[in-house]
Write a structure and sequence with these properties.
alpha/beta, Aminopeptidase, 7-stranded mixed beta sheet, two-stranded antiparallel sheet
Length: 245
């Protein structure tokens, strides 16, 4: 069976957003090293291979915001769609203390094949979905509460952006008025990597945008996913309206 490198849900939806989920699955296609990167299932179930809960959250937000959702159907360990195609971490050899055996010795031909069969089709799907739409971009991610040998992270949610903070500022203010824990402002990650997914589809075209990072244990089950989707959809629409978008 031919592997599908992306999913699109709700192509008919015409709300004010396009939603993406870069790290939606931990799938290793059969054409990549026979369908394995040489890691045990326990490692492939960790945040290093997939943003736990992010796909379900993105799809729930798509329903609530009447927005299409484009998600990648390959693990970030196979190739990371949230990197530029010239980024040295595009195909990681080490992630949070784990060596990726299937990526240790990687010929340039294999690197290019993963770009051509996975990375490029996913980004083409995002571009087609966004074309001729007057929308804001929303990228949905999740983060681990604690990296190996690092302090526990204090946030339940992070709101990330680059220089365009039309949505970010009112969204952070709205969430902070609701949540008892701090909202990460460009935390736990920076909101911009040159050539990343948001750079390609929002920063360069000039579309308003925001990235959400939700702590993975909060959205690991349907109850948490629905709770956070409902909360976030309300604040996202309020922020977009406040920004006059």
């Amino acid at each position: 069976m031919t592997h599908t490198p992306f999913f699109i849900d709700g192509t008919e939806r015409n709300g004010g957003w396009v939603i993406t989920c870069d790290h939606a699955t931990n799938t290793v296609p059969n054409h990549v090293n026979g369908g394995t990167l040489g890691l045990p299932e326990a490692e492939m179930s960790r945040h290093i291979a997939i943003d736990i809960g992010a796909l379900a959250l993105a799809r729930a937000l798509g329903e609530l915001l009447n927005a299409p959702v484009v998600s990648a159907n390959f693990s970030r360990l196979v190739i990371d769609p949230n990197r530029g195609d010239d980024d040295p971490t595009l195909i990681p050899q080490l992630y949070d203390g784990t060596v990726i055996p299937g990526n240790r010795i990687l010929p340039e031909t294999e690197r290019q094949r993963r770009i051509d069969t996975l990375y490029a089709p996913y980004h083409d799907a995002i571009a087609r979905t966004a074309a001729e739409r007057d929308i804001a971009f929303l990228a949905v991610h999740s983060f681990t509460p604690q990296l190996v040998n690092r302090p526990r992270r204090p946030w339940e949610i992070g709101v990330l952006s680059a220089q365009d903070r039309r949505i970010t500022n009112p969204l952070i203010a709205g969430l902070q008025s609701t949540l008892s824990s701090p909202v990460g402002d460009n935390a736990p990650y920076a909101g911009f990597f040159p050539g990343d997914a948001m750079s390609q589809h929002a920063h360069i075209p000039g579309r308003p945008n925001v990235i959400l990072e939700v702590r993975q244990d909060l959205i690991a089950d349907p109850v948490g996913q629905r709770h956070w989707a409902t909360l976030l959809a309300t604040h996202l629409e309020a922020a977009r309206n406040e920004a006059n978008l």
